Amino acid sequence: VGFIIYLLPQLDRLLALGVALVSTGYAAYLFVGRSPIDLQLLDNFGVTLSVDQLSGFFILTNAIVTAAVIVYTWQQKTTFFFMQTVILHGSVNATFVCADFISLYVALEVISIAAFLLIAYPRSDRNIWVGLR
Q1: Which of 20, 72, 80, 99 is most buried, most CB within 10 Å of its CB?
Q2: Exposure of 60 in the CB half-sphere (CA atoms within 13 A)
Q3: Phi-psi region of 39 (alpha: psi -120 to 50; beta: other; left: phi over 0)
Q4: How high is the pLDDT of residue 65?
Q5: Does this model's pTM top 0.70?
Q6: Host H or E run for residue 39
Q7: Rounded CA gap, 43 and 19, in Å?
C-alpha cells in the first residue's frame, strides 16, 4: 500500500490514515477473536508468522502512534513522507508477528531503510549526516 500512496498523490493522506485505521481494527479483532493465528508462508524455508493477543496489543499501539503522526503532519508533509510512514508502520507490524529469525531480519532491514529515509527527508546537509551516522 505504501507504493500505491506514491502513485496516487491526491489520496496520500487518506490512504495513510486508512492503513492505520485498518491496523487498529485488525488489532481489535485479535483481542476478541481466537488466537494465536499461525501462518506458514513458505514450506521449505520456514517463514512463519504468528499473531496472538500480545502482538495484537503491539500492533494496536503502533497503529495509534502512526495515526497520530499522520494527523499531526496532515498539512505539512508531502506524499513521500506518508509513503515512508506507511512502509515503516508495516515493517514494525511485521516484526511483531514474525516467528522466525529470517523474517525478523528482513523486517528490521526494511525498518532501517525507512527510518533512514525519514531522517534524511528534509534533504539538508545536517539531516543526511545524522541519517548516515
Answers
A1: 20
A2: 14
A3: beta
A4: 96
A5: yes
A6: strand 37-42
A7: 29
Give the whole-angstrom CA distance, residue 101 versus residue 53: 20
User: Is residue 14 a contact partner of residue 3, using CB atoms and an 8 Å limit?
Assistant: no
Rounded Cα distance between 94 and 40, Å, is 14
**Count of structural domains within the chain:** 1
What is the domain extent for residue 93? 2-132
Burial environment of residue 101 by CB neighbours within 10 A (0 to 12, 13 to 18, 19 or more): exposed
CB-hemisphere CA count at 13 Å for 73?
A: 17
What share of the chain has pLDDT > 70, as a percent?
A: 98
| First-to-final CA distance of the chain | 29
Provide the pLDDT for residue 44: 65
- The answer to whether the CB of 49 falls within 8 A of the CB of 98 is yes
Helix (H, G, I), strand (E, B) or coil at 55: helix
Would you state the cell numbers that stand for residue 122, as one nine-digit string?
A: 528534509
Q: Given this model, what pLDDT does residue 22 score? A: 95
> For the segment 24-77, what is each residue's pLDDT rounded down to a tens digit?
999 988 888 777 887 777 776 778 888 888 898 999 999 999 999 999 999 988
